[in-house]
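Fold these two proteins, one after the other.
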Amino acid sequence: MYLKGTVKKDRKTKNLVDRLENGDIALISHKDLDEVAALSLVEKKVKCVINVCETISGRYPNQGPSVLLEANIPIYECKDNLFDKIDEGEIVEIAENAIILRGEKIAECQLLDKNRIEELLDIGYANIEKELEDFIENTLEYAKKEKGLVTGKIKVPKTKTRIEGKHVLVVVRGRDYKMDLEAIRSYIDEVKPILIGVDGGGDALLDFGYTPHILVGDMDSVSDKCLKLADEIIVHAYPDGKAPGLKRVENLGIEAKIFPAPGTSEDIALLLAYTNRADLIVAVGTHSNMIDFLEKGRKGMSSTFLVRLKVGSILVDAKGVNKLYHSTFKLKYVIGITIAALIPILVVTFMHPIMRELLILLKIRIRMMLGL
């Protein structure tokens, strides 16, 4: 296989995606490439991906490589530190197992084909039982430390946006978030819920033509545009009050509140809506299973477990709703609607005096023709 293209590089895939263009070669350092990151690379239509880390370590069956494989995007692994050898914007060639820059071979690489990916995934599935055991132990251990999330010991900010008695839509840029947002678009347009974007979830709302009322998160994966458009910003801080993301917001001249709390930003977004007396919370793209959390680099889901225990009575998770019902155009529905619309028209028409006289004359004419 021979490939040639412009290299864009970043050790954080989520930061790289914003700079990628159609046909670029993505140089990443992403161990156990997750599904969401892979989908973002597919959306950018990259020519190929070069990873300087193990794309599948075998610790668990991460789904990112399968996503790229299905999209016919080749994945190469390179053990050399290419980040020091290639500048962003340079054009490289990949011929067989060689990476060539300015006519010279600078590194060896290995193509992860279908057979190799399946082999590594099998190792991951074989290890899943041990990972599950460790995951459960970590979840229970940290649940004891983070119980303040749901026992009232953590102060939840009062939002400037009025939430009480309203529906709230919390959007996280997780698996299938685009399809799920598309599936509930009519709900958003009709009910007009309060829109909370969690980091990149704010940009997801913008992509669908909606402006988030509230933006929650550590602000490391949301655009400046979204930060400027959101009505209210709440920065997720560490329990000790340190909030690295606050500086970025302040540098844009934007005011923000901080929410010191353990757990994930999506957890505190749900808690924020609940504590501010939302009538119903609809969640899109949130992480809810072990694979989701392992792909986020978390070894447990204690905060999610605790928060969902608290807000579960008013929480509706829209994950996978796009697969629940697929609307299709059916001719019989159109015919039925047309007939239903014609019935009152015909009734009114036949009740008109002139029409009734014409019908009587027509009846007489027919009887004369038939000799009756």
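Now the second one:
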Amino acid sequence: MSITDPPDLVAALPPLFGFTPSESVVGLALHGRPGRLRLGASVRIDLGRGPDDDAVLAAAVRDRLVPTGPDAVIVVVVSADPVSDDGRPPHAGLVDAVTDAFGQQRVRVEGAVWAERVVAGGPWRCYDPCDCSGTLPDPGGTRTAAEMTGLGRVTYGSREEVAASLAPDPAARSRRRRDLVDDAHRAAALDRELAGPAAVRRDLATVRRAAAEVGRGGVLTEEEVAALAAALSDKQVRDVCLGFAAEQDPEVDPVHAEELWRVLVRAVPAPEVAEPATLLAFASLDHGGGATLTTALDRAWTADPEHELSRLLQRVLALGNGPEHARRIAVEGAAETRRRVG
């Protein structure tokens, strides 16, 4: 992805975050030397109600990116607000606040750009001192979009579309689905009591087969959904599945695993849905998290307010450690559990 061409940078935001941001401030961490910079962590935050919110937003962007060790950052503002009275793009005060916040940490702001909307032909303009301007290319035609499409990633038009894509199916709330999941729990509990680690291995084989089936475009039966809900309720099974996103399992395509979690988030009833929802949240860290991360965590918390793993992920991110740190914790835990169960 180009980080020197402002219009290409802005047009790459939808595939980067998984949805088209609007009324947002975006921070992008850069690593390396001038002329050889690469993109690192990213953060997107809703714009505030007015100038009084600028300092808070700037601190939030700084606190999210500084722990990742950037050599520089780029700031993008997406807003349909009018140009300021002084001729600068809207929210120039926020850009100044972000620049000051990073300056206190001796991290330079490499550039700052505004776009009215992230659409083909939409106007963009750099903030001082560059002040160049133009229109955006087609966001779907960027190199980043092509890379995400090649990986099977879907870019949604808004955060609302992301939430709708993960909303529970009516059958997930049905009496039949609840009864099937309860039956699967009883069968799994007996198997674990009698077989121990062998039962964990059988459950993992069930998950692997389901990921492959979904990856081929297959549809899971109600009985398969129930068996998977019971399997993932075993923490050892769930923890090994965390490693799928990091390609720790040669039998599982990470894209297929992520699609399986999406299917189960819609199909599994509460409270068991907290497990695939958290697995989906972790899988989304591989490509920035974005709206999928927050929506999946919301589903997990709503289904099970005491769910430990989703709370751990929330705490790690809240401390400003970033997706990379959270993903590393998950991968290390998955590898340890896999060694233990064989």
